[in-house]
Amino acid sequence: MSEPVELIVRERPGQRISDEAADQMAALYASGWSLRRISDRMLWSYGAVHNRLRYRQGLGMRGQGGTRAGRAGLLDSPEVETQRGPMTRMYVEERLSIREIARRYGIGATSVQRRLDHGGVQRRSTGGWRLLRGDAARVVSLVDDQEL
Fold first, then answer.
1. Contacts of 123 (CB under 8 A, 6+ apart)
2. How many Å apart are CA 1 and CA 101, to the nearest integer?
3. What is the rounded distance in angstroms from the CA atom of residue 74 to the CA atom of residue 81?
4. Residue 108 — left, alpha, or beta (φ > 0 → left; ψ -120 to 50 → alpha)?
């Protein structure tokens, strides 16, 4: 929906959202506008728009950042497909950490994990070999007992 010729905007603080303004908000939201965009254009707070649409108008809200189905669709995009091969190679062959791969691509570690998971890559355990508190003292004593 292109921007309507005349949006019903808030004229003064404390003003309640009229039924006409709420109907316009619902139409904009249904056409794909975000709550933030509606609140910015109509001069209402984000919370006021959210509450009016969800509780008074009874609209179901879209999740932030899209739905899981939407994310799955993004994981199949050509851009992600071209990244998955090199990411898999870095992770499996070069044994880079997910964080290091994310840093190189300039994306979050969770995005790298999702792409590797979607590509069927088996993830390594996190952290490698760790010493427990009691084990650290035992290892130190074993090293001290041995003559190097």
1. 98, 113, 116, 117
2. 39
3. 10
4. beta
d(CA 57, CA 22) in angstroms, rounded, equals 8
For tokens 């490698």, what's the residue?
Answer: 128
DSSP 7: -
Q: How far apart are CA 75 and CA 84, in angstroms?
A: 9
> How far, rounded to the nearest angstrom, does the alpha carbon of residue 57 sit from its chain's CA centroid?
27
Per-residue pLDDT of the chain (148 residues; tens, 9 = 90+): 455 457 777 777 778 888 888 888 888 888 888 888 888 888 888 888 888 888 777 777 666 654 444 444 555 566 666 667 888 888 888 989 889 988 888 888 888 888 888 888 888 876 555 555 555 556 566 656 665 5
